[in-house]
Automatic annotation (TrEMBL):
Residues 7-143, 154-288 form the UspA domain. Belongs to the universal stress protein A family. This is UspA domain protein. It comes from the Bacteria. It comes from Thermobaculum terrenum (strain ATCC BAA-798 / CCMEE 7001 / YNP1).
Amino acid sequence: MSFFPTTILLATDGSPDSRLAMVAAADLAGRTGSKLHLIHVERPKRLATHPFGVDAGFEGAEESSWELLLGEAREVERCGAPVADIHFVEGRPSQEIVKLALELSAGLVAMGSRGLGRLQRLVLGSVSEGVVQRAPCPVLVMRGGEAAWPPRWVVVGEDFSPEAERAAEIACELAKLYSVSATLLWAYPPPPGDEAGMPPAREELLRLALQHLNDRAFDLQGVAGRRPEIRLEAGDAAEVLVRASEELSGRALIAVGRRGLDAAQPPDLGSTSIKVLHAAPGPVLICPSKEAPQP
């Protein structure tokens, strides 16, 4: 069974990180035969204002945005990935991107992490966060410079939830596609004292987690092309994942479930995926569950 998307939606604004997303989306579409759609969202005139009147640069911005979109579509095709369609819309970027992803039944949204782009219209950091929180499909958020794609390693934040299971399936198939290793990483709360003296209940928890990780690695070895490595580390889930990514100077792809890691931890850690999105030095893949509700 393949977990690759049949349709990829690339959100673009002309910023450096957006161009990284274009490279990744074109590469994935070319390798997998997925249909590739491009979208650029222009904020409505009433949203693109200064406190004392209309932005003087707004006039002509729509034409420039359309030219930007056409130019990036041509560049995608030069990379060897045919563009199925381009979409120029007006509205709030995160809402319009999610709406089109639903209409297209997209299997993946690709976008940059932040940046205003040459049109100075949208801060993609806030847009990417809005898309990640509401998209019905996995979202690939790119950053880290030209060396960030293709990834040299895939790290999956595991917590045994349906969201993490989906993230692991897609991440392991990407690992196979690019002939790199995958690691399943579970972060657990740090012990209050010396690990050597941990109570039996905590020792049993770690034993069960290790058993579950081994079972997951066994199930995924066919998807990944090789058995994924497993790691258990004490600490905050987001911090542990970011540290792991930094081992390859940001050239690792981090994959996480959208609802956060380790539901057994306090509710304030439920935004692990957003923490990773903000702190990761390289690309991040954030996945909802297979039965993600439509916004």
